[in-house]
Amino acid sequence: MKRLFSLATLVLLAALLGLQAQPKPDKKNMAAQKEVEALERQRFEAQVKKDYAFLEKVFADDLVYTHSNGKQNGKADYIQSIRDGKSVYDKIEVEALNVRAYNDGKAAVVNGTITIYQPNKPDGTPNVAHLKYVVVQIKDPKKGWQVVLWQSQKQPEAKS
Fold first, then answer.
1. Is 43 inside any structural domain?
2. Cα dihedral sign for 98, 49, 69, 17?
3. Which InterPro entries does its entry note (predicted)?
């Protein structure tokens, strides 16, 4: 049920933000795409390094963060989960990243694929997660770009 609600929220938000069918390839949108891509990479790095000041800045106060297991957090809960060691990231590798900017560079939808490396499981086996994700970012005139929505889904491990 939570997953359905999250998906419905994502679709509604995307519809509201992207009233136009395709992003316009103008200078504002192109600049926003580059800026958001760089911020995505910085945010992943901040999650690994536990840079709480950066995370406080880039996560909107009304953030909806839906983990790949369906659990949802708001901004304060998610950042606290990193502080408490419930969300631990040894490394996050960006494998694919696509940014589409809308509304004269004031909104962006990001989708990508990442690999998250976490501390080994108790039996010593590696703890690696391959995720596809979607992020919605809004450019606040005072605060800059902020993540308002994160949704991820685990991908099957590649067979060798």
1. yes
2. negative
3. DUF4440, NTF2-like_dom_sf
Closest to 58 measured CA to CA, from 73, 79, 80: 79
Residue in 65, 99, 102, 98 with CA at minimum distance from that of residue 80: 65
**Which tokens go with 149?**
């929505």
Domain hosting 116: range is 2-154
Domain count of the fold of the chain: 1
32 lies in some domain: yes
Q: The CATH number of the domain where 88 resides is what?
A: 3.10.450.50
Radius of gyration of the chain (CA): 16
The conformation of residue 88, written as its DSSP 8-state character, comes to -
Compare 87 and 8 and report the one with higher pLDDT.
87
> Where is 134: in which H helix or E strand?
strand 127-140
Task: Look at residue 114 and tell me whether its pLDDT is greater than 60.
Answer: yes
Residue 9: pLDDT band with limits 50, 70, 90:
low
The structure's pTM equals 0.80
How buried is residue 118: exposed, middle or buried, by Cβ count under 10 Å (0-12/13-18/19+)? middle
pLDDT by residue (tens digit) across 57-85?
999 999 999 999 999 999 999 999 999 99
